[in-house]
Amino acid sequence: MGGRGRGRGRGGENRSFNREQLNALGVTGNEPIPNQVIEPPPLYRMLERRPVPLESSKEMEYLLLLKQDFIHHMQLSPSYLKMPVTKSNEFEQEIDKLVAQIPTKREKYNWNLFPSELRPKIFAKRTKHKLQKAVDVSEKLNKLEKLEEKSFKSDVKTEPTTNEDDEIIEQEEEQDEEMDFGTDYANNYFDNGEEFDDEDDNLDDGPIY
Amino acid sequence: MSFQIGKLISLILQERFGIIIEKVGNFLFEYGSNPLLYIMRGTELPLGKVKEALCILIKYGLVTFKPNNNENIANYSLCIDNILLMTRYPKFLNLLKKKFGDESEMIIEELLQNSYLSTSDIIVKVAERLKCDVNDLPNVRDKFVSLVVAKYIQRLPTPNEEERPVPILEIKESVLFSLPKIDMKLLSQVYLKKIPKEELGETVFWIVNFDRFHQDMRDKYLVDAFTKKFDENVGEFVKLLLQQMYIRTDPWAETSNPVPLLEIKDIVRKKVIYPNLVTFFDQYVTVIEQDPSQIIRKSGEASGGSFQIQLKEAYNQIAWEIVEQVILEKFDSKAVRIFRLVKLKKFVEPDQIQQLAMIPSKEAKKLSYQLLEENFLKLQELKRPLANNGPIKSFTLFYIDLESIVRNLLELCYKTLYNAMTRKSHEKFINKRIIDKKQRVDAIAMGIQSQGATEEQLADIEDMITPPEREILGKIDRKMKKLNIEELEVDATIFLLQMYLKYQ
């Protein structure tokens, strides 16, 4: 009573507390204050009504079969792209390893119908660089051998260091070149192909479609 | 396009094309049309994989491209509708099987699986599947030709004359369904593997014309509706009416041109399957004419009368019916009564609802507010001052906006599809070990069976799966089947709702 009177006197309002305020004060209402707010609402609400069971007919069975067939076909076709295997997603089960060994054949496209930028052409460049490097190394080894045989001690000391320098610089150049088309992340992916370089020489002639 | 569709198409892509393509699809959905390098950056995939993914998506018609301002590169964008269509493929195949038989179904199946094929590819592949003789090749060819003539298959757009880094694909409408010459001699040589197929030098490729299938599905649902409402004979009548409609009307017209009754009568007489329809033809016609739905209306008396079929009206009514069914399942029959009342009166005051629907005041209020909350009803407020500075009297009126309800329901359907598919992959995930085991056992059994193993050995291998495991497998199977059926059924609803929107 006192509170109400004071409120009226101060604010000059002719209205008293509204319902919520009274409720909050605990003055009125026998209803308990809802206290469920503390816990989050259930993830799945209770179903109010049970859904009608689905009818299965012969036609539906056939449709199901067609659906499964199509999905299986797509999953086995070359169109089903898999992530390249990395250490983070190595196979847990033996069977997965076996499955991965099935050679994935690449699709053949009619390239007239696609933008030319989509054609894969990384193969050729890669192989060229590797070959150049190999030649350089053997030449250098020869040089070193000759130097060792002919030169004096002091020369022997100086020469290899310069050679090493050369090599470092060249390696850097090599890396730079790779960085130029390093935007091609695919390089990483094709790393596996390095061992086959010798056989793939003919790829240098141009991109393969 | 909504957030919900985005989640759905990502699942559809994942199920059919794997994670990489799903990523690319997601990126394109979220950011719209984008060039190659942006896609690569956004998806953080290796360039080679992005290229491959785009090639596959373009091949299946799920991504289109247009030259950028810089003509050397292209902008890629996603065709959301075509991705959603992938859930409808089984229905297309079933439709064709019923209408034209197995060979035609196989032709379409090959096309759906490979997206586009040349003439020889189609014929040779189907013939190989049928394991038929060289002399049977013309049979398959005829099936193929009839599918092209009936417009189920159309030509793939080809790049126009000039060579460009980004080809512009287009095709003239006049050649869309024109057949090239098929050299059967060379083709049979290819079939016998005497010459490689490259020697044919084909430049024409074929794709499936989904629009034609949608026409068929539209007709099928109408015929089904009439069959359910009356009987098979009426269904047959409607079927013939629709069939005759194609001769004189554009397939997507809202109302067909008048079809003479005599024409239908003649066809019915030639068909022996429906004797009742012949004997009671006039009675059937009267029944259809008097049907309150007014989908088939008499348009004239000349030459024994002619009839029009109101396709727009038909799908309008189907949409209403679907909405009412949804309300029935969600809020029960009293809510439907309120909904129908609002439909009838167009605009209704809340007080009137209680009186007219004969539902107690409290319940009527509760139900109508529930309907309002879920956007089945809409609220319009009218304010009118009684006197200049007197109190303002305001009316609140309920009304229905069918189009917005239909769009909401479509969203709901997409959500349902998404939920079903998520559940499916979740079940697969938690039971991965046991499913894998089953697959391995099956593979081994197949292997030794082909080597000619005895029944005992086979039984031994079968026993590797213990009875409890077998029980679990059965449970998973049933669950999967249920969810898969649900997907197909929801797609049927989606189709009907889309038809309504198409005619709008």
UniProtKB/TrEMBL annotation, chain A:
It is found in: Nucleus. It comes from the Eukaryota. Keywords: Nucleus. Belongs to the eukaryotic RPC7 RNA polymerase subunit family. One of its GO terms (cellular component) is RNA polymerase III complex. GO terms for biological process: transcription by RNA polymerase III. InterPro entries: RNA_pol_III_Rpc31. Coiled coil: none annotated. This is DNA-directed RNA polymerase III subunit. It comes from Henosepilachna vigintioctopunctata. Residues 149-158 have a biased composition (Basic and acidic residues). Signal peptide: none annotated. Residues 162-181, 192-209 have a biased composition (Acidic residues).
Automatic annotation (TrEMBL), chain B:
The keyword Signal does not apply. Residues 192-317 form the RNA polymerase III Rpc82 C -terminal domain. One of its GO terms (cellular component) is RNA polymerase III complex. GO terms for biological process: DNA-templated transcription. The keyword Nucleus applies. Transmembrane segments: none annotated. Keywords: DNA-directed RNA polymerase, Nucleus, Transcription. It comes from the Eukaryota. DNA-dependent RNA polymerase catalyzes the transcription of DNA into RNA using the four ribonucleoside triphosphates as substrates. Specific core component of RNA polymerase III which synthesizes small RNAs, such as 5S rRNA and tRNAs. Component of the RNA polymerase III (Pol III) complex consisting of 17 subunits. This is DNA-directed RNA polymerase III subunit RPC3. The lineage of its organism: Eukaryota, Metazoa, Ecdysozoa, Arthropoda, Hexapoda.
